[in-house]
Amino acid sequence: MSRQNPPKRPNSQSRPSPPSRSSRPSRSPAEPRAVRSGPPPARGGAAAGEARRLLAEYGRTHASEAGIRLRDTPAPLYQLLTLCVLFAVRIRADIAVAAAQELFAVGLRTPRAMAASSWQDRVDALGRAHYRRYDESTATALGSGAEFLLDRYGGDLRRLRKEAGGDPGRVRELLQEVPRIGPVGADIFCREVQGLWPELRPSFDSRARHAAAELGLPDAPGDLAALVPAADLPRLAAALVRVELARPAAGQS
């Protein structure tokens, strides 16, 4: 009987060669590879821990610094808007906050009081806070802005909210009708008031999102908002902006 040769084992070194580069599917021009300048994004508990650190170290809003007890009532909402007007020019944040405190200290806490004050009284209050160079034009803007709010909304910014009908973009548009309030001022107002007006959540402007990416946090607003309770959203947004403004050549508000 003839012996049959055993079947040959496949040669482990003769595996199929990978497809050539030209045969691989090419990346669509509409899908560029994302490039992140900061560290890899933190995941899960690490991201939440970093958010808690930011709240502890930097999580003080501009409103709280200025002594505004923010509530959904006409006077504190107007005081926040006044602060946003003061931030509308290129000036240091601490000087803008000090200017707001001076204005409030002399009783200019409502649109009616602001409109009834003299231009010189407003200039003097700003001067005591060293709000130089822009004191006269800002005093004018504060007076005309107060008159605008009285005429348009009866001095009550909740009516602006009602007119916006729950549309965050419309809120920003209406805010920019107030003298001296531009996109940056509207962003500041929205990020500070989002704790009271849920339709504005989450409100993280481009500076906050850039800081988040640099810190390895998610930079999508919804993902950032998931890191903290809703009540802490204004503080997290403020903390991220403070981190961003601490970088060289950053802005002032």
What's the assembly state of these chains?
A: single chain
Which CATH architecture is right? Answer: Orthogonal Bundle
Examine the coordinates and then state which fold CATH places here, giving the name of the CATH topology: Endonuclease III, domain 1
Number of domains: 1
- What is the strand content? under 5%
> SSE order, as H and E?
HHHHHHHHHHHHH
How does the major sheet shape up? none
Gyration radius, rounded: 27 Å
Determine the number of helices (DSSP H or I, runs of at least 4 residues): 13
Tell me the structural class.
mainly alpha
Helical content stands at 40-55%
Supply the CATH superfamily name.
Hypothetical protein, domain 2
The CATH class label is Mainly Alpha
Q: Indicate the mean pLDDT.
A: 86
Number of strand elements: 0
Show unreliable segments.
19-37
Cα-to-Cα separation, first versus last residue: 97 Å
- Using the alpha-carbon principal axes, give the shape: globular
Indicate the topology:
Layout: H1 44-58, H2 62-65, H3 74-86, H4 93-105, H5 111-116, H6 119-128, H7 135-153, H8 157-164, H9 168-175, H10 183-193, H11 206-214, H12 221-225, H13 233-245
Helix pairs in contact: 1-13, 3-4, 3-10, 4-6, 6-7, 8-9, 9-10, 11-13
Characterization of this structure:
Helix content is 53%, strand content 0%. With 253 residues, the chain is an all-alpha fold. The protein has a single domain (44-245), classed as Hypothetical protein, domain 2 (Endonuclease III, domain 1), CATH 1.10.340. Helix 3 (74-86) runs antiparallel to helix 10 (183-193) and helix 6 crosses helix 7.
